[in-house]
Specification:
The complex is a heterodimer of chains A (443) and B (405). Chain A is of the alpha+beta class and 443 residues long. Chain A contains 15 helices and 20 strands.
């Protein structure tokens, strides 16, 4: 039977969302899967009736039923139902990509309400918890979280942002003493916070969120010379603010959020999209190494080594400031069994600094530890000595990183020396001139 | 006895699933009662009463569901150190007479398990540990065996590192035919004890010698019951939260319809590593709300597509139907149609009970609300098609028939 072609169109109110590459499932009436595709690609099917589904990272589902005739090309329109529409066209991207994400403060460590009896018998209706380890917070400040979702605490009286540039691993991170890193005219109020655009730049950049009685939060900025990002401050249920960044490349952003939400099937599909192919991101006039790094991390996580080819070498070499390039290349080489080259690649982190994405830090630490353990049977002594030093440097930061977040986020008023010491209101007020006072925007 | 299932003779060299399960609840060198003082080597930990049961549940599930596994069940090695509470709850644990989860037993079992896994590239492996766990740094996971806290040798002599196990299960010159489909479940806390900062280096016992191999192309996801520097929780005398979510997911909550069809033409449903991850995400959102805890799971390793379990039929889905607004309820006739348009539920007004609850086999359905007799205050409702699948929370698929004008 001759096949027909099925293609897809996304109808969102914003151009941004209409251009995102969404994973698509085409199913028969009996639920059997006919094809998995992306919204930018077409599939060939036999004539018949099909159900087309797409799911967004925030959980909304799009559906369309289509009857395909013989030798006909059919376009399926996918759009949100009226119940799922974003309340505001300008907020469609966060609404559909971030939506109902769990917003937990970095320092959210609960006093677990654990009861452990020593009775030898158990009541079947009794749901008592026991921690499979220490259970209580290790070295962090414990906070009482109000799970009703309504904050009983007041908003902080002072919230500030400032930015840094440089290699924190070598203690060379310095404050940017102006506010030119933020694009002032892009400030947008959100239901529970504010967002604005951060200028693109080469080199490691960190933005720091300061609020009283909380550790300073440092976020690596996912920007490059040709790509910006959107910085988002969000008020949590306990009154504190969290900080996050949204990538300029919308498909890369969707991929990050699918992974964050545990939708691994959708993430795997998006990782293979044309929008994240090296040809689109590295070999064109406007390069986007940040999106390329997101795609590469996904390929590594999903074991798609064939898709990586050699362009991880180009990513590392063409962007010498990007620590993720070294981490990605190192992990790729490790998977290929090229261990000496892999170690050399990981060692470049020392001169490049912290990776933008927490996956990079995780890969680097795991592999450096493995190689140190493997020892002189496989590596020269001086390389191993360098690995030991770098491992200690990275682990110093890892102790204060929130690995639940895809973009690297760690605490410490001095980005060169992470810690979990709280910042006082006076400390925030005294630090100038590079601090942007966000209190007005958030009130 | 460690090798509790051995089907190698029947398989005659054909690919199979090789399983290694360990559950530790009774730690004889930790304080016996909660109110007892810490020892220099207990680091705040106490006895457990859920983890051996959790490990046993995995073993029992594999026995019961082995026909639906991706490859035949070849071997199962089981080490349990149960508590009195767990033995009282389920005497079968003790009747199994399997070996305790001591360091020596664990090392031997791991060695034999790897040996079996390395006999065929199409083998699969499954590793499950439930017990106390710690971290030495933010990115590792250390599993504490029965003798932990003994005070002999270093603090982590009776502990093993999951990364060492994972790395040792890669293809190498010693194991060129290592199983390429592996799945790991680490059901333990990943806290970083403050006291560990007093130790310069903390070495665990090495399960496998480090051997750097060639290309590592495994499909090998590692499901952790806790994210770095956080706690996993057990339900005393029952199981762990992670185990409860895992087994319910494998039984159908994480099932998705695939390409294959059964004899009746219906899609076959299966649980994959990807779909399992999605279901676990939902479970832990629910647990965080219900138990007021901060537990979340995470996935490491390499997550290629791996089929874990085929279901015999589409999983049953609890469904509820609510008419809105409530004033429209007496006038609304509800029909539920499958994707062929055939009516599967024909419900006359008023829906009784309301919300109406029932069960459907998972699949594609739409729902129609018709006002009978027609009334100017309300309008008929027709939904889009939904892929109706099991849900975690709420535990039923909810339809709203909105008849408001």
């Amino acid at each position: 039977m001759s096949k027909s072609r099925l293609s897809f169109e996304l109808h969102f109110r914003s151009d941004e969302m209409s251009q995102v590459e969404l994973p698509i499932e085409v199913r028969q009436a009996n639920s059997a899967l006919v094809a998995r595709s992306l919204s930018t690609q077409s599939v060939e099917v036999d004539p018949g009736t099909y159900h087309v589904f797409a799911r967004l990272p925030a959980g909304q589902e799009l559906h369309s039923k289509v009857t395909v005739k013989r030798k006909g090309d059919t376009t399926v329109v996918l759009k949100p139902s009226s119940a799922d529409e974003s309340p505001n066209e300008s907020l469609e991207v966060p609404f559909f990509l971030r939506g109902g994400q769990r917003q937990q403060p970095l320092e959210s460590k609960l006093d677990a309400t654990i009861v452990q009896e020593d009775s030898a018998t158990v009541n079947a209706d009794d749901d008592r918890l026991e921690p499979l380890g220490i259970g209580s917070p290790s070295n962090r400040i414990a906070h009482q979280i109000n799970f009703s979702g309504i904050s009983e605490t007041e908003s902080p009286t002072a919230v500030g942002l400032r930015a840094f540039r440089g290699n924190a691993l070598l203690g060379q991170c310095q404050e940017i003493e102006n506010l030119l890193w933020m694009v002032q005219q892009t400030f947008v109020s959100l239901p529970a916070g504010v967002q604005f655009t951060v200028n693109g730049a080469s080199g490691v950049q960190i933005v720091q969120l300061l609020q009283p009685d909380q550790p300073a939060l440092n976020l690596l900025l996912p920007v490059s010379a040709d790509s910006t990002c959107t910085l988002i401050l969000t008020r949590q249920s306990d009154g504190r603010y969290s900080i996050d960044a949204q990538l300029q490349h919308i498909t890369a952003e969707a991929l990050l959020r699918y992974r964050e939400q545990g939708d691994l099937e959708s993430a795997a599909a998006v990782a293979a999209s044309n929008a994240l192919a090296a040809e689109q991101l590295l070999y064109t006039k406007f390069q986007d190494p940040i999106a390329a790094a997101v795609g590469a991390y996904a390929m590594l996580r999903f074991g798609e080594l064939e898709q990586l080819h050699d362009w991880t070498e180009n990513l590392k070499n063409w962007f010498p400031w990007l620590a993720d390039g070294a981490a990605i290349r190192g992990e790729h080489l490790t998977r290929l069994g090229e261990h000496p080259q892999a170690l050399s690649s990981f060692l470049e982190l020392s001169s490049r600094g912290l990776p933008i994405f927490s996956s990079g830090l995780s890969y680097a630490i795991n592999r450096l530890r493995l190689y140190v353990e493997a020892g002189e049977r496989y590596f020269e002594r001086d390389l191993l000595d360098q690995a030991i030093v770098l491992l200690q440097q990275l682990q110093q930061f890892a102790a204060f990183v929130n690995f639940q977040k895809p973009i690297l986020l760690f605490t410490g008023i001095d980005p060169n020396h992470p810690d979990d010491t709280s910042v006082s209101h006076e400390e925030i007020a005294s630090r100038s001139p590079g601090i942007a006072d966000m209190t007005w925007y958030l009130s | 006895m460690t090798l509790v299932i051995d089907n190698r003779a029947q398989l005659q060299g054909q690919p199979g699933l090789h399983v290694f399960i360990a559950g530790v609840s009774h730690y004889p060198h930790l304080p016996q009662r909660r109110e007892d003082a810490d020892t220099p080597y207990s680091f705040g930990m106490r006895q457990l009463s859920s983890t051996s049961l959790a490990a046993y549940h995995i073993y029992y599930w594999l026995l019961k569901r082995q026909q639906g596994l991706a490859v035949p069940l070849a071997t199962c090695r089981l080490l349990l150190s149960p508590s009195i509470v767990e033995i009282n709850v389920n005497p079968a644990i003790q009747e199994l007479r399997c070996d305790r989860c001591t360091l020596d037993n664990f090392l031997q079992a791991a060695k034999d398990w790897r040996q079996d896994a390395g006999t065929h590239k199409d083998n699969m492996t499954l590793f499950y540990f439930a017990g106390h766990g710690v971290q030495r740094s933010k990115d590792d996971a250390v599993l504490l065996l029965e003798e932990f806290g003994k005070g002999v040798g270093g603090p982590l002599l009776y502990a093993v590192d999951i990364n060492n196990i994972f790395n040792g299960m890669a293809s190498s010159s010693s194991y060129p035919d290592m199983a390429q489909r592996q799945v790991y479940f680490v059901d333990a806390c990943r806290n970083l004890p403050a006291q560990f900062r007093n130790f310069e280096t903390l070495s665990t016992s090495q399960v496998f010698e480090v051997e750097l191999g060639g290309r590592d192309d495994r499909c090998a996801p590692i499901f952790y019951a806790a994210v770095p520097d956080s706690a996993a929780q057990g339900l005393v005398g029952k199981t762990t939260l992670f185990n409860q979510a895992l087994i319910e997911s494998l039984d159908g909550v994480a099932a998705v319809p695939g390409e294959e069809k059964d004899e009746s033409g219906q899609a076959k449903w299966y649980v994959s590593g990807n779909s399992l991850g999605e279901a676990l995400e939902s479970y832990f959102k629910f647990y965080r709300q219900k138990h007021k805890i901060d537990q979340d799971f995470t996935v490491g390793g390499s997550i290629k597509t791996i089929i874990l379990h085929h279901l015999d039929s589409p999983p049953p889905v609890n469904v509820s139907i609510r008419v809105e607004p409530i004033d429209g309820h007496p006038h609304t006739h509800v029909t539920v149609r499958n994707s062929w348009g055939k009516i599967v539920w024909n419900l006359n007004p008023p829906l009784t009970p309301h919300p109406y609850e029932g069960q459907l086999p998972a699949g594609i359905y739409s729902i129609i609300g018709t006002i009978k007799p027609p009334c100017p205050l309300y309008e008929n409702f027709k939904s889009a098609y939904d892929l109706v699948k099991p849900k975690v929370h709420p535990s039923r698929f909810e339809w709203r028939v909105e008849v408001k004008k």
